[in-house]
Amino acid sequence: MTMQKYEHLAEDVLEVMSLSDSDRINTLFSDRWIGYKKAVTILDTLTDILNRPRKLRPECLLIVGDSNMGKTTIIHEFTKQHYTKTVNDIDMELLSVKKPVLTILAPAKANVKELYINILDHFFVPFRPTDPEAKLRNQAVHLMRKYETKMLIIDEIHNCLTGSTKLLSEVMNTLKNLSNDLSLNIVGVGTREAVTILHTDAQYASRFDVAMLPKWELNQDFLRLLLSYVRLLPLKKRSDLASQRLATLIFEISGGNFGDLNRLLIECAKEAIVQGDEEITEEIVHKFKWLKPTEGMRNIRNLNLNVV
């Protein structure tokens, strides 16, 4: 398979074209990074914050957007770019390991002790969850100092809204103290409801900038996004996704939600391979116009789960 034959595809996708149809279909469901404009802007903002010198009042950021808009994908890409080694990757060189960026999940509900446990889990060190909160804090702070952690990213931070106002205040005060004690940049990632956290105390609002990840609009940026998929989906023919009719249909079905768009195009690409069309057509897109994952449960019987 030559680059000349599939010149519409990105270079790293060309090797996939030599696989069987079933293997090509399997690759559709792999994670993929698409560096669209807003995502790159947020990545650049995170990099800029990370590269600044430590200061007494570190910059903090809240990244918010609707569910299934690709927030976690962005922070995963950022963490990967600044990955050195996880603490258990090596034995003899532990003293030289640095963890400049630490990404954890927020506790299932506002709970300071669970926050420390989630931090300690990332370092793969022995600890007792039943230990007093103060001991867990000392251990977490020690490890972040030892491995020179400069940025703590907390995904699903809106979970902290589940619980009393008192517990939420305790978690936010803990993050503020960690930020002060370690010159630590705190980055929260969550749904739009997470902004409510900043309104519970004026000090939080003054510390956090907010980066919004809005739904897509049917504009040139959306068309560029569709063209990115043309290059990344391993189909033998070039799909005319950015045409007016097809782009409008795709937008109407996905509702501007990035996750719904991704799922729609993956299912359409799979169907194109199964049918032998090797391109996403208007007819294929119409077959999946009911597919709106973010709106609720999907009837899996409507999906073609057969693999060639």
Automatic annotation (TrEMBL):
Pfam families: TniB. Coiled coil: none annotated. SMART domains: AAA. InterPro entries: AAA+_ATPase (IPR003593), P-loop_NTPase (IPR027417), TniB (IPR008868). Residues 57-218 form the AAA+ ATPase domain. This is AAA+ ATPase domain-containing protein.
